[in-house]
Design brief:
By secondary structure, the chain is α+β, with helices and mostly antiparallel strands. The protein has 9 helices and 6 strands; from the N terminus they run E-E-E-H-E-E-H-H-E-H-H-H-H-H-H. Strands 1-2-4-3 form a 4-stranded mixed sheet. Strands 5-6 form a two-stranded antiparallel ribbon. Strand 3, helix 1 and strand 4 form a beta-alpha-beta unit. It starts with a strand and ends with a helix.
Length: about 290
C-alpha cells in the first residue's frame, strides 16, 4: 500500500533525516540509500521495515549533515611522501625542476587524502533506530488512511454485486417457461407436433433445464459476498484472503453468465464482473 513518512532530528554532531516511501507491490522490495555510518546497520534497518510495513516497493533514504567537521579529510602523509619522491626522481632524470608543481600533481593522485570514519556508537544507533521507527509510524498511519478509503470502495462494489444479484430474480421471471415453449416450438417445427413423444420430451426437458438452473450459484455468490465483508472488517492482515474470496465470487458470476441464456441477465452479469474487477484490483494492494 502507498505510504510516506519523514522524521528529522538535530544533535550537536549531526542533523539526521529519515524518509520512507512505500508503493504497492506483492513482495517486499526495499531500496536503501544510507550514509556510510549506517552501512553496518543496514540489515537491522531492513528488518525494522519488513516488520512494520511487511510488503511493498519501499524506498528508504537516511541522510545527515555533519555539524562539527568531524568528517574533514586528513592528508595521508606516507602516500604523499612516496608519490613525491618517485616523481622527484623522474623529474631529475628528465631535467625538470618544479617541486611546487609536483606537489599539486601528487595531491590529485589516489589515496592522498583519507576520511576518518568512526563506528556508530550504541547511543547514536538508538537515535537512528528511534527516528526510523518514527518515520515508519508516519508511513503506517498514511497507509491506514488509504485503507479506510479502500474499505469504502470495496464495500460499495460488494453491495453493487449483491444488488445486481437481487435484480436477477426479477429479470429471470418465467425464463424456464419461455425456454420450454421455445424448445417445444422448435421441435414441432422440425419434426411436427404429431411426431413428438411428450413424455420423452418432458424427461429430456427436465435434464436440460437443470443445467440452466442458477439458484445454487446465486446462494453461493451471496455467501461469498457476506464472507468478504466479514473478513474485511476483521482484525489482522487479510489481503490474500480477500483476493481468494474474490476469485470464488468470479467463478460463481461466470457460471451464472454461462447458464443465463438471457440478454437481460447477461447484462447484469457484465455489471457484476465490472464491479468484481474493481474489487480484485483493490485487494492486490491490501496487506
Amino acid at each position: 500500500m502507498t505510504g510516506y513518512g519523514k522524521a528529522m532530528l538535530e544533535t550537536p554532531q549531526r542533523k539526521i533525516t529519515v524518509e520512507i516511501k512505500s508503493l504497492n507491490s506483492k513482495q517486499a522490495d526495499i531500496n536503501t540509500r544510507l550514509p556510510w555510518i549506517c552501512k553496518e546497520k543496514e540489515l537491522d534497518i531492513r528488518n525494522m521495515i519488513i516488520r512494520r510495513l511487511e510488503r511493498g516497493k519501499i524506498d528508504v533514504s537516511i541522510s545527515f549533515d555533519t555539524m562539527d567537521g568531524e568528517a574533514a579529510p586528513v592528508i595521508n602523509r606516507n602516500n604523499v611522501k612516496s608519490y613525491f619522491s618517485q616523481l622527484k626522481e623522474i623529474s631529475n632524470e628528465l631535467g625538470v625542476n618544479d617541486d611546487a608543481g609536483l606537489l599539486a600533481v601528487v595531491m590529485r593522485l589516489p589515496d592522498t587524502l583519507r576520511t576518518e570514519k568512526p563506528e556508530m556508537s550504541d547511543e547514536e544507533w538508538a537515535r537512528f533506530a528511534g527516528l526510523t521507527e518514527e518515520a515508519l509510524t508516519m508511513a503506517d498511519l498514511y497507509r491506514l488512511e488509504e485503507g479506510k478509503a479502500m474499505e469504502k470502495d470495496l464495500s460499495k462494489s460488494v453491495a453493487s454485486i449483491v444488488g445486481y444479484l437481487d435484480n436477477l430474480g426479477a429479470v429471470e421471471g418465467d425464463r424456464i417457461s419461455r425456454m420450454r415453449e421455445k424448445l417445444l416450438a422448435t421441435l414441432n417445427e422440425a419434426v411436427g407436433s404429431e411426431n413428438v413423444d411428450r413424455n420423452r420430451f418432458e424427461q429430456e426437458l427436465i435434464f436440460y433445464l437443470e443445467k440452466l438452473d442458477i439458484n445454487e450459484e446465486k446462494v453461493r455468490l451471496r455467501k461469498h459476498c457476506d464472507y468478504f465483508e466479514e473478513t474485511m472488517k476483521g482484525d489482522g492482515n487479510h489481503g490474500k484472503m480477500l483476493n481468494f474470496i474474490s476469485q470464488e465470487m468470479g467463478r460463481e458470476i461466470n457460471t451464472i453468465g454461462s447458464k443465463a441464456n438471457d440478454a437481460a441477465m447477461q447484462k447484469l452479469v457484465v455489471m457484476m464482473k465490472d464491479e468484481l474487477e474493481k474489487i480484485k484490483e483493490l485487494t492486490l494492494n491490501i496487506l
